[in-house]
Amino acid sequence: MKKIYGLLTLIFVLVLAACGGNETATSTEEGKPVIKIGYLPITHAVPLYMQNDEAYEGYELELVKFGSWPELMDALNTGAIDGASVLIQLAMNAKEKGVDLKAVALGHRDGNVLIGGKEIASVEDLKGKSFAIPSRFSTHNILLYEMLKKHGIGYDEVDVVELPPAEMPAALAEGRIAGYVVAEPFGAMSVALENGKVLYQSEEIWQDSIDCGLVLRGDFIENNKALVESFVADYVAGGELAEHKDEHTYEVVDDYLTVEKDVLDLSLEWISYDNLSIEEDSYTILRDALIEMGLSENPPMYEEFVDASFVD
Asked: How far is C-alpha 237 from the geometric centre of its chain's CA atoms?
Protein backbone atom coordinates (compact mmCIF):
# COMPACT_ATOMS: atom_id res chain seq x y z
CA MET A 1 0.00 0.00 0.00
CA LYS A 2 2.85 2.41 0.87
CA LYS A 3 4.46 1.75 -2.52
CA ILE A 4 1.16 2.49 -4.32
CA TYR A 5 0.70 5.69 -2.32
CA GLY A 6 4.24 6.79 -3.07
CA LEU A 7 3.75 6.11 -6.78
CA LEU A 8 0.50 8.08 -6.87
CA THR A 9 2.20 10.99 -5.07
CA LEU A 10 5.05 11.01 -7.59
CA ILE A 11 2.58 10.91 -10.52
CA PHE A 12 0.67 13.83 -8.98
CA VAL A 13 3.88 15.89 -8.67
CA LEU A 14 4.94 15.12 -12.23
CA VAL A 15 1.50 15.97 -13.64
CA LEU A 16 1.57 19.33 -11.89
CA ALA A 17 5.07 19.99 -13.18
CA ALA A 18 4.08 19.00 -16.71
CA CYS A 19 1.12 21.37 -16.64
CA GLY A 20 3.52 24.26 -16.72
CA GLY A 21 3.90 25.27 -13.10
CA ASN A 22 5.36 28.76 -12.88
CA GLU A 23 6.91 28.94 -16.35
CA THR A 24 7.30 32.71 -16.57
CA ALA A 25 7.94 35.16 -13.80
CA THR A 26 4.95 36.78 -12.15
CA SER A 27 4.90 40.59 -12.17
CA THR A 28 4.19 43.48 -9.83
CA GLU A 29 1.48 46.00 -10.63
CA GLU A 30 4.20 48.11 -12.26
CA GLY A 31 5.10 45.19 -14.53
CA LYS A 32 8.36 44.33 -12.80
CA PRO A 33 8.99 40.54 -12.76
CA VAL A 34 8.98 38.82 -9.36
CA ILE A 35 11.29 35.88 -8.71
CA LYS A 36 10.11 33.57 -5.91
CA ILE A 37 12.91 31.64 -4.20
CA GLY A 38 12.41 29.22 -1.32
CA TYR A 39 14.82 28.91 1.59
CA LEU A 40 15.28 27.57 5.11
CA PRO A 41 16.68 29.97 7.76
CA ILE A 42 20.28 28.73 7.75
CA THR A 43 23.65 30.37 7.12
CA HIS A 44 24.05 28.29 3.94
CA ALA A 45 21.50 30.64 2.31
CA VAL A 46 23.24 33.90 3.26
CA PRO A 47 23.99 34.93 -0.37
CA LEU A 48 20.22 35.14 -0.88
CA TYR A 49 19.81 37.29 2.22
CA MET A 50 22.53 39.66 1.05
CA GLN A 51 21.07 39.78 -2.44
CA ASN A 52 17.58 40.56 -1.16
CA ASP A 53 19.02 43.46 0.85
CA GLU A 54 19.88 45.26 -2.39
CA ALA A 55 17.45 47.08 -4.70
CA TYR A 56 17.51 45.91 -8.31
CA GLU A 57 15.85 47.71 -11.19
CA GLY A 58 15.10 44.67 -13.33
CA TYR A 59 13.12 42.50 -10.91
CA GLU A 60 11.91 41.96 -7.38
CA LEU A 61 13.14 39.05 -5.28
CA GLU A 62 10.60 37.39 -3.01
CA LEU A 63 12.16 34.99 -0.50
CA VAL A 64 9.70 32.33 0.67
CA LYS A 65 10.55 30.79 4.04
CA PHE A 66 9.91 27.09 4.68
CA GLY A 67 10.11 25.07 7.87
CA SER A 68 11.42 21.84 6.37
CA TRP A 69 13.09 20.43 3.27
CA PRO A 70 10.06 18.30 2.26
CA GLU A 71 7.79 21.36 2.31
CA LEU A 72 10.28 23.34 0.25
CA MET A 73 10.74 20.53 -2.29
CA ASP A 74 6.97 20.13 -2.71
CA ALA A 75 6.72 23.82 -3.60
CA LEU A 76 9.70 23.63 -5.97
CA ASN A 77 8.55 20.45 -7.72
CA THR A 78 5.03 21.75 -8.33
CA GLY A 79 6.09 25.22 -9.53
CA ALA A 80 4.76 27.18 -6.55
CA ILE A 81 8.20 28.81 -6.43
CA ASP A 82 10.70 29.48 -9.21
CA GLY A 83 13.73 28.12 -7.39
CA ALA A 84 15.28 27.48 -4.01
CA SER A 85 18.39 27.38 -1.91
CA VAL A 86 18.24 23.67 -1.17
CA LEU A 87 20.21 20.53 -0.47
CA ILE A 88 21.58 19.62 -3.90
CA GLN A 89 20.90 15.92 -3.34
CA LEU A 90 17.17 16.51 -2.83
CA ALA A 91 17.02 18.34 -6.16
CA MET A 92 19.07 15.56 -7.82
CA ASN A 93 16.59 13.01 -6.52
CA ALA A 94 13.68 15.03 -7.94
CA LYS A 95 15.52 15.35 -11.26
CA GLU A 96 16.07 11.59 -11.34
CA LYS A 97 12.29 11.15 -10.91
CA GLY A 98 11.55 13.43 -13.86
CA VAL A 99 11.16 16.91 -12.39
CA ASP A 100 12.89 19.50 -14.58
CA LEU A 101 15.34 21.25 -12.27
CA LYS A 102 18.74 22.88 -12.83
CA ALA A 103 21.43 23.68 -10.28
CA VAL A 104 23.03 27.00 -11.22
CA ALA A 105 25.28 27.87 -8.25
CA LEU A 106 26.50 26.73 -4.86
CA GLY A 107 25.11 28.19 -1.66
CA HIS A 108 28.49 28.16 0.07
CA ARG A 109 31.75 26.25 0.45
CA ASP A 110 32.75 24.21 3.49
CA GLY A 111 31.03 25.13 6.75
CA ASN A 112 29.66 21.70 7.73
CA VAL A 113 30.85 20.17 10.99
CA LEU A 114 30.38 16.72 12.49
CA ILE A 115 29.45 17.25 16.13
CA GLY A 116 29.85 14.78 18.99
CA GLY A 117 28.43 15.02 22.48
CA LYS A 118 30.58 15.72 25.53
CA GLU A 119 30.86 12.00 26.29
CA ILE A 120 32.17 11.21 22.78
CA ALA A 121 35.98 11.15 22.98
CA SER A 122 36.51 9.68 19.52
CA VAL A 123 34.57 8.59 16.44
CA GLU A 124 34.80 4.99 17.68
CA ASP A 125 32.59 5.98 20.64
CA LEU A 126 29.68 6.47 18.22
CA LYS A 127 29.25 2.72 17.72
CA GLY A 128 25.77 1.64 18.77
CA LYS A 129 24.66 5.21 19.42
CA SER A 130 22.26 7.54 17.63
CA PHE A 131 23.64 10.12 15.20
CA ALA A 132 21.35 12.65 13.51
CA ILE A 133 21.29 13.90 9.92
CA PRO A 134 18.76 16.24 8.26
CA SER A 135 18.03 13.91 5.32
CA ARG A 136 19.32 10.73 3.73
CA PHE A 137 19.73 12.79 0.57
CA SER A 138 22.27 15.22 1.95
CA THR A 139 25.98 15.90 1.96
CA HIS A 140 25.70 15.56 5.73
CA ASN A 141 24.77 11.91 5.37
CA ILE A 142 27.69 11.34 2.99
CA LEU A 143 30.07 13.10 5.39
CA LEU A 144 28.93 10.80 8.19
CA TYR A 145 29.39 7.75 5.95
CA GLU A 146 32.89 8.84 4.94
CA MET A 147 33.91 9.69 8.51
CA LEU A 148 32.84 6.27 9.75
CA LYS A 149 34.59 4.57 6.85
CA LYS A 150 37.75 6.55 7.63
CA HIS A 151 37.69 4.98 11.11
CA GLY A 152 36.83 1.49 9.96
CA ILE A 153 33.26 1.67 11.25
CA GLY A 154 30.31 0.36 9.25
CA TYR A 155 27.47 2.77 8.58
CA ASP A 156 25.06 0.21 10.04
CA GLU A 157 27.02 0.16 13.31
CA VAL A 158 25.57 3.59 14.11
CA ASP A 159 21.87 4.34 14.57
CA VAL A 160 21.41 7.06 11.95
CA VAL A 161 18.25 9.12 12.49
CA GLU A 162 16.70 12.02 10.59
CA LEU A 163 15.84 15.12 12.63
CA PRO A 164 14.83 18.70 11.75
CA PRO A 165 17.99 20.84 11.95
CA ALA A 166 16.65 23.14 14.66
CA GLU A 167 15.93 20.15 16.93
CA MET A 168 19.45 18.73 16.86
CA PRO A 169 21.23 20.96 19.44
CA ALA A 170 18.50 20.29 22.02
CA ALA A 171 18.50 16.55 21.24
CA LEU A 172 22.26 16.46 21.85
CA ALA A 173 22.03 18.43 25.08
CA GLU A 174 19.29 16.10 26.34
CA GLY A 175 21.26 12.98 25.45
CA ARG A 176 18.75 11.73 22.87
CA ILE A 177 21.53 11.60 20.26
CA ALA A 178 25.29 11.22 20.57
CA GLY A 179 26.12 13.54 17.67
CA TYR A 180 24.91 15.13 14.47
CA VAL A 181 25.90 16.83 11.25
CA VAL A 182 23.74 19.53 9.72
CA ALA A 183 23.68 22.95 8.08
CA GLU A 184 24.86 25.92 10.08
CA PRO A 185 24.32 27.60 12.50
CA PHE A 186 23.10 24.50 14.35
CA GLY A 187 26.53 22.92 14.73
CA ALA A 188 27.95 26.14 16.15
CA MET A 189 25.12 26.29 18.70
CA SER A 190 26.25 23.14 20.51
CA VAL A 191 29.91 24.17 20.41
CA ALA A 192 29.18 27.69 21.72
CA LEU A 193 27.04 26.25 24.54
CA GLU A 194 29.75 23.66 25.25
CA ASN A 195 27.26 20.83 24.80
CA GLY A 196 29.23 19.38 21.91
CA LYS A 197 32.60 19.32 20.18
CA VAL A 198 33.78 19.26 16.57
CA LEU A 199 34.81 15.77 15.53
CA TYR A 200 35.63 16.85 11.97
CA GLN A 201 35.28 19.81 9.67
CA SER A 202 33.76 18.89 6.30
CA GLU A 203 36.93 19.78 4.36
CA GLU A 204 38.87 17.26 6.47
CA ILE A 205 36.57 14.51 5.19
CA TRP A 206 35.68 15.71 1.70
CA GLN A 207 37.48 18.69 0.18
CA ASP A 208 35.18 21.00 -1.84
CA SER A 209 32.08 19.02 -0.88
CA ILE A 210 28.85 20.12 -2.54
CA ASP A 211 26.01 20.82 -0.14
CA CYS A 212 23.33 23.49 -0.55
CA GLY A 213 22.91 25.13 -3.91
CA LEU A 214 20.74 27.51 -5.87
CA VAL A 215 18.33 25.42 -7.95
CA LEU A 216 15.86 26.79 -10.50
CA ARG A 217 13.04 25.19 -12.44
CA GLY A 218 14.06 24.34 -15.98
CA ASP A 219 11.00 25.94 -17.57
CA PHE A 220 11.62 29.14 -15.61
CA ILE A 221 15.17 29.35 -16.99
CA GLU A 222 14.01 28.60 -20.53
CA ASN A 223 11.37 31.32 -20.51
CA ASN A 224 13.34 33.98 -18.61
CA LYS A 225 16.97 33.63 -19.67
CA ALA A 226 17.91 37.30 -19.51
CA LEU A 227 16.17 37.64 -16.16
CA VAL A 228 17.96 34.55 -14.82
CA GLU A 229 21.32 35.94 -15.98
CA SER A 230 20.75 39.12 -13.97
CA PHE A 231 19.41 37.23 -10.96
CA VAL A 232 22.33 34.77 -10.74
CA ALA A 233 24.87 37.56 -11.25
CA ASP A 234 23.30 39.43 -8.34
CA TYR A 235 23.27 36.21 -6.29
CA VAL A 236 27.01 35.78 -6.82
CA ALA A 237 27.50 39.42 -5.85
CA GLY A 238 25.50 38.69 -2.69
CA GLY A 239 27.94 35.90 -1.90
CA GLU A 240 30.87 38.27 -2.35
CA LEU A 241 29.23 40.72 0.07
CA ALA A 242 28.62 37.92 2.56
CA GLU A 243 32.27 36.90 2.40
CA HIS A 244 33.22 40.26 3.94
CA LYS A 245 31.55 39.05 7.16
CA ASP A 246 31.39 42.65 8.30
CA GLU A 247 28.86 44.60 10.33
CA HIS A 248 26.54 44.90 7.34
CA THR A 249 26.56 41.12 6.87
CA TYR A 250 25.57 40.63 10.51
CA GLU A 251 22.77 43.19 10.21
CA VAL A 252 21.29 41.48 7.18
CA VAL A 253 21.60 37.94 8.54
CA ASP A 254 19.92 39.08 11.76
CA ASP A 255 16.73 39.70 9.75
CA TYR A 256 16.60 36.02 8.78
CA LEU A 257 18.20 34.10 11.65
CA THR A 258 17.51 34.31 15.37
CA VAL A 259 20.90 33.37 16.74
CA GLU A 260 23.35 34.68 19.33
CA LYS A 261 26.33 36.62 18.01
CA ASP A 262 28.93 34.18 19.35
CA VAL A 263 27.14 31.36 17.49
CA LEU A 264 27.03 33.36 14.27
CA ASP A 265 30.70 34.32 14.70
CA LEU A 266 31.68 30.67 14.83
CA SER A 267 29.36 29.65 12.01
CA LEU A 268 30.66 32.35 9.65
CA GLU A 269 34.24 31.49 10.59
CA TRP A 270 33.72 27.96 9.25
CA ILE A 271 31.93 28.88 6.03
CA SER A 272 32.86 30.71 2.81
CA TYR A 273 30.73 32.30 0.10
CA ASP A 274 33.22 32.99 -2.68
CA ASN A 275 33.58 30.92 -5.86
CA LEU A 276 30.02 29.61 -6.02
CA SER A 277 30.45 27.75 -9.30
CA ILE A 278 29.50 24.05 -9.24
CA GLU A 279 32.57 22.22 -10.51
CA GLU A 280 32.25 18.95 -12.40
CA ASP A 281 34.92 17.09 -10.42
CA SER A 282 33.19 17.78 -7.11
CA TYR A 283 29.81 16.88 -8.58
CA THR A 284 31.16 13.57 -9.86
CA ILE A 285 32.38 12.69 -6.35
CA LEU A 286 28.91 13.49 -5.02
CA ARG A 287 27.19 11.41 -7.70
CA ASP A 288 29.47 8.42 -7.10
CA ALA A 289 28.87 8.63 -3.34
CA LEU A 290 25.09 8.51 -3.79
CA ILE A 291 25.45 5.35 -5.86
CA GLU A 292 27.94 3.74 -3.45
CA MET A 293 25.63 4.36 -0.50
CA GLY A 294 22.65 2.91 -2.35
CA LEU A 295 20.74 6.19 -2.17
CA SER A 296 20.32 6.54 -5.90
CA GLU A 297 20.53 4.13 -8.84
CA ASN A 298 21.02 6.69 -11.58
CA PRO A 299 21.55 10.25 -10.32
CA PRO A 300 21.63 12.86 -13.09
CA MET A 301 24.89 13.46 -14.90
CA TYR A 302 26.59 16.84 -14.52
CA GLU A 303 25.56 18.06 -17.98
CA GLU A 304 21.93 17.02 -17.35
CA PHE A 305 21.54 18.79 -14.04
CA VAL A 306 24.10 21.58 -13.68
CA ASP A 307 24.11 24.82 -15.66
CA ALA A 308 27.22 26.66 -14.53
CA SER A 309 27.09 29.10 -17.44
CA PHE A 310 25.34 31.83 -15.44
CA VAL A 311 28.06 31.88 -12.78
CA ASP A 312 30.97 31.31 -15.18
From this structure: 19
